[in-house]
Design goal:
Length: 246
């Protein structure tokens, strides 16, 4: 049976018009934008950029799944590559819960307000030279010296704060406080007769009062030399706390 072509066009006018409209729209915009296929895979060889002037999130991802593996975004990159970059001066990410910091699990980090922990360990030759063992922000630095021909090693604190610092140290078995100005205070020193000697000491530094910034540092230092003119090993761990005026 022959059906007039005009009758077919008239009967399917809306579907044909819709297909034509989609085809025209797609062909005119494909050169200007890149499409992301929802529920599928989008392959591209160039960067896809989203620009927005909205006063809110430029991209909102919501997962309503109640499954145990539901998540908002999954990022996969080669080993050692950064998963994201953030612009300089970016603000705080609200409610961010990170698993690791610099590769360290959160359970291994010290928790506390205005507290930081610094540590270092070095091995030096018996060269009679001062070597920086650790920088203490706001205080100064800890230096180590392995003396040649003496079988002697020492660890000292150098005050670089610009003001006096109270120092308590059990060096030579005394915790009597000393007010250290712009100078050097000994934290540890020992002599070895050739049979190997090690030593460890602790010290406490502090400055400030109720009307100024207050800052304290607790140090554990240690050193070892196996024989006269042998290399020396030094290490230090410092816990630093700072607080505003009361």
């Amino acid at each position: 049976m022959r059906v007039p072509i005009r009758s077919v066009i008239s009967r399917y006018r809306w579907p044909l018009a819709l297909v034509a409209t989609v085809a025209v729209t797609s062909s005119t915009t494909a050169a200007a934008v890149s499409y992301v296929v929802a529920g599928g895979v989008t392959a591209t060889g160039s960067t896809t950029t989203i620009k927005s002037t909205v006063n809110g999130a430029a991209l909102q991802v919501t997962d309503t799944s109640a499954g145990a593996n539901g998540k908002g975004i999954g990022i996969t990159v080669p080993v050692g590559h950064a998963p994201i970059t953030v612009s300089p001066g970016a603000g705080k990410a609200v409610n961010l819960n990170a698993d690791k910091l610099d590769g360290i699990d959160g359970s291994a980090l010290a928790h506390g307000k205005n507290v930081s922990i610094l540590s270092n360990r070095i091995v030096t030759l018996a060269d009679n030279k001062d070597h920086t063992l650790l920088i203490l922000p706001g205080f100064g630095k800890v230096i180590a010296n392995c003396y040649s021909g003496l079988g002697k090693a020492a660890i000292d604190f150098v005050n670089k704060s610009g003001h006096p610092i109270d120092v308590w140290s059990d060096y030579q078995g005394s915790y009597k406080p000393v007010v250290l100005g712009d100078s050097i205070g000994r934290l540890l020193s020992f002599m070895t007769s050739g049979d190997g000697v090690d030593d460890g000491e602790s010290a406490f530094l502090g400055f400030g009062n109720n009307d100024t910034q207050r800052k304290t540092a607790s140090l554990q230092v240690g050193a070892y030399e196996s024989d006269v003119n042998a290399p020396c090993g030094f290490q230090v761990t410092a816990t630093i706390w700072s607080g505003p005026a009361l």
